Amino acid sequence: MAKKIKRNTPIATLIKNYVNRTKGKVMSSRNEIKWRFEYLDWRDQKKILMAFLESGKKDRQWAYSKMMGYWDDAFQPKMKELWEQLHEEGCALSVIHFFSKEYVMQHLEQFSYDKNYYFICLRFAEDKDFVIDKSKLSSFQYLSVLHQTGRSIGEEEAADALYGIVHDICVGNKDEAQPWLGAGANTERGAIISPIHFLHVALALYFLDELNHSLITLLFREWNQEVQRAIMESQDYRRICQLDGNDYRVVVILLAKKYSYLALDDKYKLPTDPDVDEMLPKVLLPELVEEVKVPVTPAELQPEPEDPEMLEEMMDENPALERLVDDLDLSYQNPDVAKLMNLQARLLDLDIFK
What we know:
Number of helices: 18
Order of helices and strands: HHHHHHHHHHHHHHHHHH
Distance between the termini: 49 Å
Helix content: 55-70%
Largest sheet: none
């Protein structure tokens, strides 16, 4: 006998069960509502969001997460009430984006979460009188704000921001705690990772080229080649080439952080930085076997991921990536844009873009 297919409960019934806290029905109704939410009519979606805003913290957080895509001015009175009573982080993002500039400025000191200041800058940086407090932004966030709002930056400040991003990656500061790699980064056994393969560095180079600082990016690429050579000539590299699979992938990233940090000018290093040996603990390195052979072409002979056709092929295979490139108004024929590695996997998931 064929298994009987479960029939869908009308969405109006689910909303009613959830709102009225019907005994034995609340949890199942909540889960079903969340599962079906994206496919419902706007009228029902609006009712659901309002109901979740009226509910407990967990359900409010879910509603906050939907606000950027489903915002309607009808939510503003309730969101204003919640913000002024609770000051929850999820609520803050919608307040910054959708409330009047006057209201946001009046409550500026209440936006205490680090990532909120980035979005405040995006909202106000086009106003010439707005002064950006760089101490509240990571180096990457700062360059992103300048690029997206059309502000200029001096040559020395541009270099400091770029190498500051490398520093943050090496020591795990702020939004660089996880050094995300781009699609052009090869982590197979024998390959080398260098600063240019980190996604935030690739994006920063693009930002600076767009801000007319091509000399800075050229000098950085030359510096990056020096880091690659230092890695390839090191005993550490020869030792990790004996590792396989995921072990190699983990350690080659740590190797890049260590030698990138060593190559930084002292002015980019801080007294509070961890010891360089902590960046690549010796316990992770196998004993050196003299006859070990590097299984792939040395890094400086590998082609850099700058062929525009690579990104074009990725766009053909992934419509979401094509939409992303269009949304950011990027030209994938620009070789530097082709270096924006792993856009489809990571760009919108970065903390600074949330």
